[in-house]
Amino acid sequence: MMTDKTRIICIEDEPETTNLMKLILAREGYEVLGANGGEEGLALVNEHHPDLILLDLMMPEMDGTQVFQRLKENEKTRDIPVIVVTAKVQSIDIVLWRQVAKVDDYITKPFRPEELAERVKYVLAQAREKED
Q1: Does the residue 18 lie in any domain?
Q2: Does residue 2 belong to any structural domain of this protein?
Q3: Hey, how many other C-beta atoms are within 10 angstroms of the C-beta on 68?
Q4: What distance in Å separates the CA atoms of residue 9 and residue 81, rounded to the nearest whole number?
Q5: Which range among 4-8, 64-68, 103-107, 123-127 shows the weakest confidence by mean pLDDT?
Q6: What's 6's DSSP letter?
Q7: How far, in Å, CA of 38 to CA of 17, rounded?
Q8: What is the CATH number of the domain that holds 93?
């Protein structure tokens, strides 16, 4: 089924968080696919090539750092914008991910629904500007 909707993949090990993000972002008109953990997330990204990835950092087996590295190593996925959505609230984590890893945004849990929607909209707009 082809769709003109902007596709977002949420890579998260907590189904409740994935469902919340799907609910918030579906109201904004986005198609949101959820992946339970890193391996499933990478497979989904390769299959659906989303417009944006929401990535949790603390997951069992393959954590968000490993997922991010694999995304950036792959020519087909390296330019997909990534927003980290995590419970890691330490300033050092935020600085490292924004300044060193160069993620497109960093949102700490718990987040407000409006905050998630606004940041997603902003990152997608930035990505479209880069393409033009």
Answers
A1: yes
A2: no
A3: 21
A4: 11
A5: 4-8
A6: P
A7: 15
A8: 3.40.50.2300
